[in-house]
């Protein structure tokens, strides 16, 4: 594996019917409300953001009701979202997106050049909007310059661990060995779902 294909945890993704509902879910779980994010014109979505430390953050994302149809499947399976807000996805960062995709299993996505405000990045986006293994496989991002985590106000929250569960998680790790090197991420063969342990001023909390 090349150095550019090495991975690190970048952010967690809470999907919701609306960003307001997602913010309420996060505030109830962690005691802190996400702050302003922005809009993604290419995807027809918008988000709110919350720092989880100097190199990691949480994103609440939903379909932007004021945006036109993007003419493609929205990321994180948002076109089919239903039910309560939940932690459904996670994203790993790399220095070289093309190199990382060479070592990733099929279905992680096609590189797209994206921007929001002063932020610039490339991200692999699945054509159908769905990451493999029900979101157990991470999205892949490569920031061009500073990343979102570096510009968010420090809330005192710190991610202490992310557990990624799926009945076929062993197959994912076999197909994508680079995932084993991710700090703070534990892979569990069992029920589908993500669970993040986060240190808050009120103690350790779980977000699912």
Automatic annotation (TrEMBL):
Lineage: superkingdom: Bacteria
Pfam families: Glyoxalase_3
Gene3D superfamilies per record: 2,3-Dihydroxybiphenyl 1,2-Dioxygenase, domain 1
InterPro entries: Glyas_Bleomycin-R_OHBP_Dase (IPR029068), Glyoxalase-like_dom (IPR025870)
Segments forming domain Glyoxalase-like: 9-179
Protein name stated in the entry: Glyoxalase-like domain-containing protein
């Amino acid at each position: 594996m090349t150095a550019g294909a090495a991975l690190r945890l970048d952010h967690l993704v809470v999907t919701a019917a609306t960003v307001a509902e997602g913010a309420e879910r996060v505030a109830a779980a962690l005691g802190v409300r996400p702050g302003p994010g922005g809009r993604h014109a290419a995807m027809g979505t918008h988000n709110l953001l919350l720092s989880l430390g100097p190199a990691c953050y949480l994103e609440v994302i939903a379909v932007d009701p004021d945006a036109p149809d993007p003419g493609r499947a929205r990321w994180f399976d948002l076109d089919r979202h239903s039910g309560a807000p939940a932690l459904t996805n996670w994203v790993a960062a790399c220095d070289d997106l093309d190199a990382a995709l060479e070592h990733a299993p099929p279905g992680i996505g096609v590189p797209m050049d994206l921007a929001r405000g002063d932020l610039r990045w490339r991200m692999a986006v699945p054509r159908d909007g769905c990451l493999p293994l029900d979101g157990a496989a991470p999205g892949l991002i490569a920031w061009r310059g500073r990343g979102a985590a570096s510009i968010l106000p420090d809330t005192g929250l710190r991610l202490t661990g992310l557990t990624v569960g799926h009945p076929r998680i062993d197959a994912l790790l076999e197909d994508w060995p680079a995932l084993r090197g991710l700090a703070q991420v534990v892979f569990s063969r069992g029920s589908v779902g993500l669970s993040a342990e986060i240190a808050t001023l009120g103690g350790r909390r779980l977000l699912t």
